[in-house]
Design goal:
Distance between the termini: 53 Å
CATH class: Mainly Alpha
Number of helices: 15
Largest sheet: none
Oligomer: single chain
Radius of gyration: 25 Å
CATH architecture: Orthogonal Bundle
CATH topology: MetI-like fold
Structural class: mainly alpha
CATH superfamily: MetI-like
């Protein structure tokens, strides 16, 4: 029998690292890997909260997936999810966050503090409170229609006429501060000497932006795009509180549709299959951004 003294030093160091890693691995296994595996298993069953299916769990194979891809509402939900992602995350939060950051670049501390506080107010507001505020703003008798009526412009039923636009604007207001902070940090790292040298050489502000600043922070732009995309992909409370996924299916994204099937229609097996579709979409988008970072 080999004593502990006979174990090579390298092996003892390896075991020591494993001891320190074990708590983290255990937490990841219990709270991340196990739920995913359980969800994957339930997606092949008839799991339900009520009815005959709730009495006895049965393995139904790919029935939930066949039903999912044959359901026209799933296609509508995927399309709505992509519109919501592109409008509020990829374009909205990214562009607006960058514009605010570039306008605040090298401004005095008081100016940056005041503007930053105003923008951060939307980010630190809880999602449900943000939804209620924007619902009051876009409602039939809300703030926006009150302003329009006061200046003689016909009012609009925003939440029924352009519901997707209202939830996109709500999510932009709620999440832009994160992009602003990320871009502020990146812009502050751009060497001033390079910009000053370009100005001396006669370069315009636009040329400096497109030829120096944007290439210098392109990694930050891609990373921020990935973070806000994945965060927006799981937005549920904001949309559900403002429109409930309606009118009809106008704002029904994948998280909304998954919730309706799992907890409104009580079809948990079908709901978990939809959740895996949402997970797959997140993985595909993550791989796209990671590949962009490498390039």
């Amino acid at each position: 029998m080999m004593s502990s003294a006979a174990i090579p030093v390298t092996s003892r160091k390896t075991y020591t690292w494993l001891y320190f890693l074990f708590p983290s691995l255990a937490v990841m296994l219990v709270f991340f890997i196990y739920p995913i595996l359980l969800t994957f298993f339930y997606s092949f069953t008839n799991l339900a909260l009520t009815g005959e299916s709730a009495k006895q769990l049965k393995f139904v194979g790919f029935d939930n997936y066949v039903r999912m891809f044959a359901d026209p509402t799933v296609r509508v939900s995927i399309w709505n999810t992509l519109i919501f992602l592109i409008g509020s995350a990829v374009i909205g939060q990214q562009v607006l966050g960058f514009l605010i950051a570039i306008l605040m670049k090298r401004k005095n501390k008081t100016f940056r503090r005041v503007i930053g506080t105003i923008v951060l107010a939307g980010w630190v507001t809880p999602e449900i409170v943000c939804a209620l505020c924007l619902y009051s703003f876009f409602g039939d008798e809300g703030t926006l229609n009150s302003i329009l009526g006061a200046i003689g412009i016909p009012t609009v039923t925003w939440l029924y006429t352009v519901p997707m636009l209202t939830v996109i604007l709500a999510n932009i207001w709620h999440g832009t501060a994160f992009s602003m902070l990320v871009f502020q940090a990146a812009l502050d790292d751009v060497p001033k000497e390079i910009e000053e040298a370009a100005l001396v050489d006669g370069a315009s502000r636009w040329r400096i932006l497109t030829s120096i600043i944007l290439p210098y922070i392109k990694g930050t732009i891609t990373t921020n795009a990935m973070l806000v995309t994945l965060q927006t992909l799981g937005v549920f409370g904001l949309i559900y509180a403002m429109t409930g996924g309606g009118p009809g299916t106008a704002t029904t994204t994948l998280p909304i549709f998954m919730y309706n099937q799992a907890f409104i229609n009580y079809q948990l097996g079908y709901g978990t299959a939809i959740s895996l579709l949402l997970l797959l979409l997140g993985i595909v988008l993550s791989l796209f951004y990671i590949r962009s970072l490498k390039e």
